[in-house]
TrEMBL record:
<dbReference type="GO" id="GO:0016020">
    <property type="term" value="C:membrane"/>
</dbReference>
<feature type="transmembrane region" description="Helical">
    <location>
        <begin position="114"/>
        <end position="132"/>
    </location>
</feature>
<dbReference type="GO" id="GO:0042147">
    <property type="term" value="P:retrograde transport, endosome to Golgi"/>
</dbReference>
<keyword id="KW-1133">Transmembrane helix</keyword>
<feature type="transmembrane region" description="Helical">
    <location>
        <begin position="64"/>
        <end position="85"/>
    </location>
</feature>
<dbReference type="InterPro" id="IPR052241">
    <property type="entry name" value="SLC66/Scramblase_ANY1"/>
</dbReference>
<protein>
    <recommendedName>
        <fullName>PQ-loop repeat-containing protein</fullName>
    </recommendedName>
</protein>
<dbReference type="GO" id="GO:0045332">
    <property type="term" value="P:phospholipid translocation"/>
</dbReference>
<dbReference type="GO" id="GO:0005802">
    <property type="term" value="C:trans-Golgi network"/>
</dbReference>
<dbReference type="GO" id="GO:0005829">
    <property type="term" value="C:cytosol"/>
</dbReference>
<keyword id="KW-0472">Membrane</keyword>
<feature type="transmembrane region" description="Helical">
    <location>
        <begin position="138"/>
        <end position="159"/>
    </location>
</feature>
<keyword id="KW-0812">Transmembrane</keyword>
<dbReference type="InterPro" id="IPR006603">
    <property type="entry name" value="PQ-loop_rpt"/>
</dbReference>
<dbReference type="Pfam" id="PF04193">
    <property type="entry name" value="PQ-loop"/>
</dbReference>
<dbReference type="GO" id="GO:0005768">
    <property type="term" value="C:endosome"/>
</dbReference>
<feature type="transmembrane region" description="Helical">
    <location>
        <begin position="6"/>
        <end position="30"/>
    </location>
</feature>
């Protein structure tokens, strides 16, 4: 039997810990005035996943600590997204006009465009919930969508690291927070007997964290050669434009 005070501390840690992981990442970007190395898609995944998880809570009242965590994470990612856009690298798709995504998804030039998309996403979720919210099947699917999205969180960073052959710009504190936090929450979900969606997706997410730890060991965090070449190309293009 777990003492009540231990359970309470664990719940507080679950609610506050994950959003705080990104505080040091945000501080590092502001300090360097450069968001190179941190995948902005991480913000997209966390925002969409936690918004969906809030609607999941309305249909399946899981632990209050996890709902509070989602609300705090949404606020934290909105702030981090703003910082990433303000200090985006010179070679970002918005700056060079080279986005290969349909409608330049999540590579828009203005922060307000991201907010407009998020508001539209919330409205769509609200409409669907009003229509199908009484269906147990819909709530189950909603839970898997919410937790499934969140479990893909490390994948954009994994891909970014592989392309750069380096973890430059990705804070060690964030990696430690991911690995430690996901390990903790996996145990927490099983101890608290959380819904199945939480358990399955937590295990998957932890496995991706392990892959990024291996990347850190193999690649290190040196400035990637591709970034240096891109900066040289941009400077040359700007110089020619001025001529």
């Amino acid at each position: 039997m777990i003492p009540q005070w231990v359970s309470m501390l664990a719940s507080i840690g679950m609610a506050v810990g994950p959003p705080l992981v990104y505080a040091d990442q945000a501080y590092s970007i502001v300090q360097k005035q450069d968001a190179t190395g941190f995948s902005r898609d991480v913000c997209a995944i966390l925002l969409l996943a936690n918004i969906t998880r809030c609607f999941f809570w309305l249909g399946n009242r899981f632990e209050l600590a996890l709902l509070i965590q989602s609300v705090l994470m949404i606020l934290a990612q909105l702030a981090l997204l703003y910082i990433c856009i303000r200090y985006r690298p010179k070679a970002s798709p918005e700056n060079v006009g080279a986005s290969s995504r349909p409608f330049s998804f999540w590579q828009w030039p203005k922060y307000t465009q991201y907010l407009e998309f998020i508001v539209g996403f919330v409205l769509c979720q609200a409409i669907l919930f009003l229509i199908f919210g009484r269906s147990e099947f819909f709530i189950t699917i909603l839970g898997f969508v919410a937790l499934g999205l969140e479990s893909t969180l490390p994948i954009p960073q994994l891909i970014s690291n592989h392309k750069q052959r380096s973890l430059y710009g990705f804070r060690m504190s964030t990696l430690v927070g991911w690995f430690g936090g996901d390990s903790f929450k996996t145990v927490y979900f099983f101890v608290q007997n959380s819904p199945l969606q939480f358990k399955v997706c937590a295990i998957f997410q932890l496995s991706i964290d392990c892959a990024i730890v291996v990347q850190r060991i193999i690649f290190g965090n040196a400035v990637p050669a591709t970034t240096l070449r891109e900066e040289d190309d941009i400077e040359q293009a700007l110089a020619l434009a001025e001529e």
